[in-house]
Amino acid sequence: MAEVIESVIKGQSKPPRGIDCLAGSAGRSLLLVGAGGCGMRGLAAFFLDAGWQVYGQDAHGFQTDDPLLAAGMKVWPAGSDPHPQVSWVVRSAAVPAQEEHVVAAQAAGAKSALYAEMLGELSLLRPVLAVAGSHGKTTCTAWIAYGLREAGVQAGYLVGAQVPQLGASADWGDPELPLVVESCEYARSFHHLRPADVALINVDAEHPDTYPGGLPEVVEAFEIFLQGMSATGTVFAGPETPDLRHACDGQWQDCAPLPADLPLGLTGRHNRRNAAMVAAVLKSFGLDQPAIDHALATFSGAARRLEEVGQASNGALVVSDYAHHPVEVAATLQAARERWPGRRLMVVFQPHQAQRFHAYREMFAPSLDLADALLLLEIYRARDPEELQASVAELVPELQQRLPHQERALSTVQNHQEGRRILASWWRPDDVVMCLGAGDVDAFARSLL
User: Fold this and answer.
1) How far apart are CA 235 and CA 218, in angstroms?
2) Which of 17, 40, 320, 321 could be bridged to 445 by S-S, CB 3.0 to 4.6 A?
3) What is the mean pLDDT of the chain?
4) 400-430 burial, b if ≥16 CB within 10 A, otherwise e?
């Protein structure tokens, strides 16, 4: 990486291919369907910055003060109104190929692509550092981008969440420098990328709806992903990364653990492991040790990663976190213990997907051991087959067995209103209310303020 930056400074680098080379029959224009998602918003920012006409469509609509609208994105006309012609129609993974706006745009001559496929197109335009792993991608991508920007290195970045210290989830940056991209394994999306380098955090069984074969199938997908990277690139392997060096032609670099007393901006054993990889990547960009230490000590995280959303009416601190896999839930609660020692953790947990709930059923109860009180919202169904039924109540017997009911409050609820009522009967002013999950539990957290 340092060589790339040095060549830019000396004027020796080859000029990158700009986004404009993707222009098609309708010029520099595209429609984003499902544009409200964070990744799609990042794509919108890239194309808007390049001067393209960007249209957005989302089932949830857009607020009038949406930054993308202020930056020039136009809302796609509704109904049967005449629609502008666009060169591309890009849809999020949640939008089916036969969605009406996608079909109409294609019929008018637009090329069609999934978000992951368009990201793959962009990875051919400039060097890409792909941050991959079953857990921790958002935090590590944001941490790397933050460290580079703090050091004055204007590399581009695309993160799957808002990052307050960066001001946005995406920025094209200097096109002659690498683009740091959060790359997702869901439905093998990352197979569309052609990265120059890879930061590999961990590999775990996840997304049972697209990896029904479990961990062996996930490992195979990561191996194929690594085979698509540059033969001259580097895989930065975190402390939890399995040895997959056989799958890539590039250099494999194991990242050394950090000194135990090195201060970090984020708490938790998992974040100390993440920070080791972040440090190695930043060093590869040519940052000196003081700049690396500064980045590690001052980064405060991405949205919905131990995010303090405010105080409840009684003074309790309300925290929102995206953790939904049992490995993530356990790691998040351990980090919360570090961050708020001595305070009660009132945990509100909402499982995400009946398929995930069934696949990792035996892992969920142990992942919640550190909760002092536990409120379980019903499973948030997403992409679940209708015939697959499950209820969070199935966890109750094991939770009671692991920690008797008299030692912690435990309840299941069917709706947010009931949840707020029960929580209000439990909490104390000095409690920390941890709201965990990938469904609408974040809305529940904010409703407590």
Assistant:
1) 18
2) 320
3) 94
4) eeebeeeebbbebbeebeebbebbeebbeee
- Which CATH number among 3.40.50.620, 3.90.190.20, 3.10.310.10, 3.40.50.1860 corresponds to the domain 307-447? 3.90.190.20
SS3 content of the chain, % helix, strand, coil (to 5): 35, 20, 45
Nearest to 158 by CA among 302, 272, 367: 302
Quick: pLDDT tens for 182-219: 999 999 999 999 999 999 999 999 999 999 999 999 99
Cα 441 to chain centroid distance, Å, stands at 16
Query: CATH assignment of 23-115, given 3.50.50.100, 3.40.30.10, 1.10.8.100, 3.40.50.720?
Result: 3.40.50.720
Q: Tell me which DSSP letter residue 380 carries.
A: B
Among 272, 270, 378, which residue's Cα sits nearest to residue 334? 270
CA neighbor of 272 nearest in space, from 259, 281, 290? 259
Q: What's the DSSP call for residue 166?
A: T
C-alpha–C-alpha distance, residues 440 and 416, integer Å? 10
Candidate from 49-63, 92-106, 321-335, 403-417 with smallest mean pLDDT: 403-417
Q: State the Cα–Cα distance between residues 418 and 327, nearest whole angstrom.
A: 28
